[in-house]
Write a structure and sequence with these properties.
The chain is α/β, with parallel strands linked by helices. 30% of the residues lie in helices and 27% in strands. The chain is globular. The relative contact order is 0.12.
């Protein structure tokens, strides 16, 4: 690579090497495209380096600690369970590094050039990359924007990354805080709040809405609320954080609930109220690309923006900010550029919250289905009726299957319970393929396993489940 005024002509440039960008790059290269990936920080993006992977590593360890503390009733005597946070971070970072190196090897083997630096547009079809090595210029035929997103701070209360922290900070704390306040009861707030509660923190979660996770089928949050309480997490619903004062190295949180203003103290305030798309600072106006008021880019089902040869994927598109959504979009963009008949026409995208117990959903809730005019039938099966759940000591939760009463089509599958994140794959296949409820009931599920719950919930739709009484 020549650094300077020389302009390199490239068939496809991808900005961002997260789960959307690097997947798009590999698929494009598989289809014969010449690809250059521009990454400002690390391969794998937020998901691999500061999100999905490191958080799940910490969730696993904190969950194991909690589980070991209660296995005495199973006859397993374990004493003095403790966590060395430094060793935990070392192991977690090792996992991340191995995965990141794997991405690098895959990009290299697929003949993809990676440029590290900050990208900005100079004019349509041209891009400038500033790095420690100087300035590099590219002229592209096609462009895929995959720049991801950034945590949103509270209005008037910026992150100082010391007392007021974001999710990235929370994954690298040097010691377990005595008191932690989490602002926002979404997936990130719940997951990390539970991690630190299990590691020994006094955790309180402040949520502005008066319902926990209102977008879910209401039976799931009911189970989660009980679990949060059991794990020592205090949930403050219908609560607004007013301000945060710094006092003697600690945070004084002023909040209001039911018209009454109260204060409490914390060592750390984790703000997890959402993320905003990274569309500022790269000169999108120079190529004539507009964003909406929240910074999102509008695309069609082929991931094309209003500019035909410019594509956008992942967190830049309005909707659920999920790594697997970004990856799927990346494949579509790469295939469309290569002339393949590809489009985003999926019926459902699974969503997972790695809470305790885990939550995984796909398709429509009862309320959503009824709003769309469906007459529905639903079946519920509790984990406590599963032999396998009992043998692993994890019986909390349920599986719910929703179907169209007229056609028998599976409309949604909703799970809260152990390994829900793995179990949802069967539900996603059923919803995506518009399976009939009989496709689930006639599938023989191995015994004793957790997936039996999906089969029984499907049977409960027609009131013929075996291991519960059908009302």
């Amino acid at each position: 690579m020549v650094v300077g005024d020389f302009t390199q002509k490239v068939q496809t440039v991808i900005i961002g090497a997260g789960p959307g960008g690097y997947v798009a790059a590999i698929r494009a290269a598989q289809l014969g495209q010449e690809v250059v990936v521009i990454e400002k920080e690390l391969l794998g993006g937020v998901c691999l380096n500061w999100g999905c992977i490191p958080s799940k590593a910490m969730i696993e360890v904190s969950g194991l600690k909690k589980h070991l503390e209660k296995v005495g009733e199973m006859g397993l005597m374990v004493k003095d369970v403790s966590v060395d946070l430094n060793l935990l971070h070392k192991w977690k970072n090792g996992v991340v590094e191995k995965l990141r190196n794997g991405i690098g090897i895959l990009l290299e083997k697929n003949g993809i050039e990676v440029i590290y630096g900050s990208a900005s547009f100079t004019e349509p079809g041209k891009i400038l990359v500033a790095s420690e090595h100087g300035i590099q210029r590219f002229e592209f035929k096609n462009l895929i924007l995959a720049t991801g997103s950034t945590p949103i701070p509270l209005p008037g209360i910026p992150f100082d990354h010391e007392l007021i922290i974001d999710s990235t900070d929370a994954l690298g704390l040097e010691k377990v805080p005595e008191k932690m306040v989490v602002v926002g009861a979404g997936s990130v707030g719940i997951e990390l709040g539970l991690v630190y509660a299990k590691l020994g923190s006094d955790v309180k979660i402040i949520e502005f809405h008066d319902r926990l996770l209102p977008f879910l089928d209401p039976e799931l949050p009911k189970v989660l609320e009980k679990s949060l309480k059991r794990n020592g997490v205090k949930l403050l619903l219908g609560t607004k954080l007013e301000k945060v004062n710094r006092k003697n190295g600690k945070a004084e949180i002023v909040y209001s609930q039911a018209g009454k203003q109260t204060t409490m103290e914390a060592d750390k305030v984790l703000v997890a109220i959402g993320r905003s798309p990274n569309t500022e600072g790269i000169g999108l106006d120079k190529i004539g690309l507009k964003v909406d008021q929240k910074g999102f880019i509008k695309v069609n089902e082929k991931m094309q923006t209003e500019i035909e040869n410019v594509y956008a994927i992942g967190d830049l598109i309005q909707g659920a900010m999920l790594a697997h959504r970004a990856s799927h979009m990346g494949k579509i963009a790469a295939e469309v550029i290569s002339g393949k008949p590809s489009a985003f026409d999926n019926l459902a995208i699974p969503g997972v919250i790695f809470s305790d117990p885990e939550i995984a959903t796909v398709g429509l809730t009862e309320a959503e289905a009824e709003k769309q005019g469906y007459k529905i039938k639903a079946g519920v099966f509790p984990f406590r009726a599963l032999g396998r759940a009992m043998t692993i000591g994890e019986t909390e939760g349920l599986t719910k299957v929703i179907s169209d009463a007229d056609s028998g089509t599976v409309l949604g599958v909703h799970i809260i319970g152990p390994h829900a994140s793995d179990l949802i794959a069967e539900g996603a296949l059923a919803v995506e393929s518009a399976s009939h409820i009989d496709d689930l009931t006639l599938t023989i599920h191995a015994h004793p396993t957790l997936p039996e719950g999906i089969g029984e919930a499907a049977e409960a739709v027609e009131k013929k489940a075996i291991h519960i009484f059908n009302m």
